[in-house]
Write a structure and sequence with these properties.
102 residues, 5 helices, 83% helix, elongated
């Protein structure tokens, strides 16, 4: 759902025409962030096989949604600063929750 909303909001046409080199660089960064998102989703999927509290499970799922949505926004070259802040905040929150859970 987060990916669909981010894809609907974004329109990369302006960036692609204005500065193709920057757009290529940003899309390469989005691919790297996409690989991180896939790794995070895989780790969360693996962790959900064991019993969790509702708070921890919800934190993991929301963190994965935010990472996926922000990666899509970066790919769409829309709201890049907001997407970067969201991506890194969600990644740090996933790491913090996984560190603090028992």
């Amino acid at each position: 759902m987060a990916i669909g909303i981010a894809a609907w909001v974004g329109d990369p046409g302006g960036y692609l025409q204005a500065d193709p080199a920057l757009a290529t660089l940003l899309r390469a960064m989005a691919l790297i962030k996409g690989m991180i998102a896939i790794a995070a989703a895989g780790a969360v999927f693996w962790r959900l096989a064991w019993p969790l509290s509702r708070f921890v499970a919800a934190s993991y799922l929301v963190g994965c949604w935010v990472i996926a949505g922000s990666t899509t926004l970066i790919w769409q070259l829309s709201y890049i600063v907001l997407a970067a802040v969201l991506f890194h905040s969600a990644a740090l929150s996933l790491l913090w929750v996984s560190w603090r859970e028992r």
